[in-house]
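hiii, so i know i said id send this last week but things got crazy w the move. better late than never?? heres the sequnce for the chain we talked about at the cafe, plus the structure i predicted for it. fair warning i was half asleep when i ran it
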Amino acid sequence: MQDTSKLYDGVITNCRSLFINKMKDYGSAWRILRLPSLTDQIFIKAQRIRGLQENDVRKVDEDESSEFIGIINYSIMALIQLEKGVANKPDLSVEDATAQYDEKIAITKKLMMDKNHDYGEAWRDMRVSSLTDLILQKLLRVKQIEDNKGETLVSEGIDANYQDMINYAVFAMIHLNK
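okay and structure toks below
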């Protein structure tokens, strides 16, 4: 499982670097996005991945990796929005946003390590297409919870679903980088 931790950190290092560079280019303009808008951005990325996996012809020369990175980073933005609420204008510096990013990833990685222990690293035997489908399922769950105004009767909340999407996307990236 130590190997999983290192591989996870490697994927996150790349995602974090892109997040920081985009913060330098655009600032925290994403802070004005409501949660359903972030969910829809993640949905677009997941649908594109599924299309790339199913279609024989690609009209844009990009692979699945950039879309999985997008899922990870948008999910972290969503976790930040859940905690901080939506802003009326960009309100986070690169340093503040990076600190929030690191905090959300630390919590999400711990969850992954705990589940990974309990599930015996089952993800290693999964296909990337199955991880994509699980992300899409989580997105549909989040959309339903959003439609229910954030209320659930017996299910985990939106935050847990975003964390699972991050972890599934990291697992997919590990598989793709083999």
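btw The chain has a mean pLDDT of 95. thought thatd interest u
miss u guys!!
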